[in-house]
Each structure stands twice: as structure tokens, then as C-alpha cells.
Amino acid sequence: MNSNTSNPNATSKPENTMRRIVISTLLMILAVGLIFGVTGIAKGTTRNMVIILCLIITGALIIAIRGNLLVGKLIAPFGAALTLLFAAYNGKGFHDEILVGAPVAIVMAGLLLGNWGTVVLSVFLIAGITAIGLAEINGIVQSDLSALTSFEDIITVSLMIVAMAFVQRLLIKRLNNSLEEARRNAEAQSQANRELRTLQADLEQRVNERTMQLNRRAVQLQASSEVGRAVSSIGNLNELLENVTMLISERFGYYHAGIFLLDRAGENAVLRAANSLGGRRMLENGHSLPVGSKSMVGYVTQHREPRIAADVGREVTFFDNPDLPQTRSEMALPLIAAGKLLGALDVQSNDAGTFTQDDVNVLQVLADQVAIAIENSNLFAESREALEASKRAYGSLSREAWVNLLSGRTNLGYQSDSSGSIQPVEGGWSKELVQAQREGHSVKIDEKTLAIPFKILDLPAGVIRLKKQTTSQEWSEREINLIETLVGNLGEALESARLYEDTQRRAERERIASDISARIRESLDVDTVLQTAVLEMRRALNLEEITIRLGESNGQKSP
Description:
This protein is an alpha+beta fold.
């Protein structure tokens, strides 16, 4: 049994329609046959033939219900034709039932069996009608209209059936053409619908992909902004690099981020910061990669351009690090500031094919920000070292100058009393003043008298002795703190005064030298130049005597 009989649900819609038509036709023919047999219209042999026909149609009906339509298709039109012929034979000949039922039988044959069914059924009807007509003409069949039957009637009815069959064929052909065109249109519409659904699905996928890309780009831009804020707000280089790797890992979703900086020789890229556990182990071990080595960082630091490894499993020459075994894809970008290569930014993911050109564009901007921050930090460190060196050199020279100044003037100082007069200090230092300078803090000589030491460039320079009036209260902590602040300003003022005096003396020396040089150059005569030099140098330097001699000594003693 075929699949259609075993599974009625598997049949197509046209087959179900055809089966309903066949079953309906068979039921109609069976009903007509039963009416002829039960009511007694058919008698004798005709009645027996009607019963046999009903049995055949019942069998065909059962077969059609079970799914086999061919038997039903054959029996339905031919059963209808037989029923018409039996009715004509038993009734009024072909003057009544044949003229009414023949078109129905022909249409039924054309619909169920096609052109060949129409032709066969037409031949069958013509043969039956001819037989019945001849039987009526010869008196074998007697009816009320038998006397009117002639050969012309037989020919006319036969030609009518042929014409009906021809028209039926044309109609079926046109109907088939219309159905074929409708089928093609339906297929074209179905194809267009499929293409539209495919296009819709493709557009939805593109929109989803574009939406995901835009969301990812928004996240990346936000992360870049956060890294930019961190770069501008953190001054310490080590803290900056550590924060950058953490932000890149958290905001971009990469499980490892590391920053390499070139050593002083520019031959190796040294890992300076990393966020992952493996990266921290690499930091502890002093991990470094030679410039130009077979690694992502080595390639980037040599060629100064970004590089992506979509699947490091296939590019083992670029990556082989047991501290980061989960890496499936990697991207490295150069850190360049003002045309100077500083190192490389290395990011790694545990998914293959993670990095795209868009990631390169976004992270390269971030890498440039980091490079500028690193360069600024380096320049700041160099400037600070130069400033410290300058301060040390200046402090050393200043302390040396103050040592020379104080060693030559042991009693340099002044005092002022209630009268407002200012007088130089005379006599030696009291033990309280010596104690205050030696211990470096304030000393109360008594309730009214206070000794406060002061320094110039961290060099103990002197002591201030302050005494209140007898009617005043003793020194308070607030007053002592205020005096100590003023004393600190005194040291700065003294250093400024010393620098001014040095500047004045240097300017005076340069002026004197310039005047003497100008006077000497006024003459081109050797004797005149020597005489001018002796005179001007004695006056400028306030000397008692000066001698200038030319020539070699030749072992002679000076006078």
C-alpha cells in the first residue's frame, strides 16, 4: 500500500479534492441506482443489471474511501453513462434521459480522466445510443416515443455527443492552461515570498549585527574616555600603567592586557604592567621580549605597526607563553609619541577571532594616549632630576658662599632696644644662644627672653634673641610658632640679599673689566697700551703698586 493510503494526512490538497469529487459522484450514482432498484422502475433483467451496477459502485466507493482513486475515476463516469443507458433502455429511449445526462457524464469523464476519458466515454455513449436507437427502430425496445425514432435521430444525437466532447476538450485544455498559469503564478509568488523572507531575514541579521557593532563601539568609546581620564589624572608612571591595563581588561572584556616599554638600549621590550595572574607572574620573573623577535610584541616594536593574530593556535611562532595558556587570539599595538617608539600594548582574548580592524582603530587611539602620558611622565621625571641636580648644585654653591661669608665675619649681627636705635652686636655668644643653635630649636632663657635658631639652605646661620617688656606676659606657644615662621622667612631674605650682592659685585667686576679693556684698546701703540693698562688697573683695583713686563726672564731675578 502506498503512502497515501497508509497516511491520509500525507495526501496533497488537490488529491483530497479529487477524492471528494469521486466519492460524491459514486454516491450520487449509487443513489440513482438504488432508486431505480427499490421503486421498481427497473424490472426484470434491467433490475438485475442495476443491482449489479450498485454493487460495483459500492466496491469502487470503498476503494476510493481507502485512497485508491483510479477505480473510482473509471467507475464514476462510466457508471453514470451505464445508468443513463439503462434508464433510456427501460424508459423513453434516448429522447429524454440521454439528452439530459450525457453532458453530465462527459464533463465528469473530462474532469476525472482527462481527454482520453472524454473520448472513450463519448465512443461508449455513441455505441450505446446507437444500439438503443436501433433496438427502438426494430421494435426490440418499446416506448411512447419509439415510433418517432429514426436513423437521423441517432446520427444527430451522436453528432451532439461528439460536439460536446470536442467542446469539453477545449474547455478542459483552457482550464488546464489556466490552472498551469495559476500554478506558475503561485510558484512565482511563492518564490518571491521566499526571496522576501530571505531578504527580510538578511536585513534583520544585518541590523542585529550593526546594532551589536554600534553597542560594542559605544562601549569601546566609553572605555577609551575612562582610560583618557585616568591618563590625565594619574602622575605616577607605574600606577598609570597598572590602571590602564585594568581598565582595558574590564571595559573591553579581554582577559589579559600588558604594557611593554623599551629598555634604555632599545633592544628589549620589558613588561611593566599586566592585569592577569599570568601577567603578574611574568612581571615577577622580569619578562621581556627582544625587539624583532618571533612574537607579536617583537614584530610590533620592530615594524612600528599593529598586528592581529586571529587564532594563535595556528600562529605558534608568534605566541608560546605557558603563563597565558588560555589565549586564542592576540593583538599588539605600538606605543609611539612624537615619532619616538616607547613600547607596545598587548591584549589577549580566550576566544578565537575576537579582534577586528575596528578594534585596532579604537585601541590605537587609546595606545597613543597612553604613549603621550608615558612620554610626559618621562619628561617630567627628567625635568625633576635636572631640577634636583640644579638645586643640589645651587645649594652647594650657596652653602659654600655662606660658609666663606660667616667665617670672615664672626660678629655679624645687629640689635635694637626700646629706644628704636640699631647697633652692631658686640661680645661673644651666651651659652643659651650656643645651645639653641646646637640643638636646632627654640630655648627659653627666662620667662621674658627667647632664643630661636635659624638656617639658610639647611646651614645653621645664627640665632635670634627676643626679650619682652617687663610688663608683658611670658612667651606662648602661638607666639613662638609665629616667630619661627618669621625666622624662616628671614633665611630666605638673607639668601636673596646675598645673591643680589653677588650679582652687584659680578656686574661691577664686569664693568671694570669692560672699562679697562676699552681704555687699553684705544691705542694701537704697544708702549701706550702697556702704560694705559698699568694706570687703569691700579686705579680700578685701588692698588699701591703694579708692574707689567714683557719679554723672557733669561734666568734673571726681579728687582
